[in-house]
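wait is this the right file?? whatever heres the structure
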């Protein structure tokens, strides 16, 4: 996707009473850089939360807490070029995946297994074709997961791993619905329940754009698609509460300047 929606401020809220009062938890980003944008969040449990943070300049950071927000650890990720964060996904307090593009193209997926002390890029040639753009990673368990990117070669680039990102296999074009010309994917715009996962796309129009929802019920091996919304509306996020119902889509109006 060629547009990003950043959270300009972030608070981790902890419920203190039955009336749902909350307490903001502050983060010291510790430099370098003067501006820090918490863009994405992955919540493991009540104690462990990982944040994807974009900072001014070519800085890429992972920020996480293991004590419910009382203290935060800020780690630098050695992503090359001009890293722009697309997504973050955490398995536990030690293991997390961060997805970046290089100034809005290509893609790298960085993984830590020691709580952010060390990071390794888990992709090589993936998302490197013309038009490649890594949108998100999701792990069904410690070994099996998918990384979804914008269409390359005429269809969505969906990469599957069964060994925690050490190797990847692209889902064949025959198992993915054909794209509409100009269609793209959304950064971190997905939802998963059990073996089922959905992601949203954007479709340009003459004065506005519309969207579709892609769905897999077998951990990304095969896909179907449905139209979602009318023209002149876009998405920020989607969420399913079960594998079959209660679909929530946050909408906002946009112009066609993406």
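ok assuming it is, sequence goes like this
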């Amino acid at each position: 996707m060629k547009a990003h929606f950043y959270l300009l401020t972030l608070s981790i809220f902890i419920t203190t009473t039955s009336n749902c009062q909350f307490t903001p938890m502050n983060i010291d980003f510790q430099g370098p850089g003067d501006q820090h944008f918490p863009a994405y969040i992955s919540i493991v449990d009540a104690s462990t939360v990982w944040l994807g943070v974009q900072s001014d300049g070519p800085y890429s950071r992972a920020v996480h807490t293991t004590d419910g927000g009382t203290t935060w650890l800020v780690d630098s990720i050695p992503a090359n070029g001009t890293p722009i964060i697309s997504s973050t996904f955490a398995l536990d307090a030690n293991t997390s995946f961060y997805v970046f593009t290089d100034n809005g193209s290509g893609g790298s997926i960085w993984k830590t297994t020691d709580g952010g002390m060390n990071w390794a890029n888990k992709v090589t040639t993936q998302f490197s074709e013309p038009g490649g753009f890594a949108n998100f990673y999701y792990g069904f368990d410690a070994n099996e997961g998918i990384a979804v990117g914008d269409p390359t070669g005429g269809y969505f680039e969906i990469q599957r791993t069964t060994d925690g990102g050490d190797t990847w296999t692209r889902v064949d074009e025959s198992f993915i619905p054909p794209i509409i010309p100009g269609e793209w994917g959304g950064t971190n715009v997905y939802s998963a329940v059990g073996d089922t996962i959905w992601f949203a796309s954007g479709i340009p129009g003459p004065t506005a754009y519309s969207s579709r929802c892609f769905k897999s019920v077998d951990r990304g091996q095969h896909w179907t698609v449905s139209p979602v919304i009318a023209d002149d509306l876009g998405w920020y996020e989607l969420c399913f509460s079960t594998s079959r119902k209660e679909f929530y889509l946050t909408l906002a109006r946009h112009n066609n300047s993406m």
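Confidence is low (pLDDT under 50) at residues 2-18, 250-258. so i think its the right one actually
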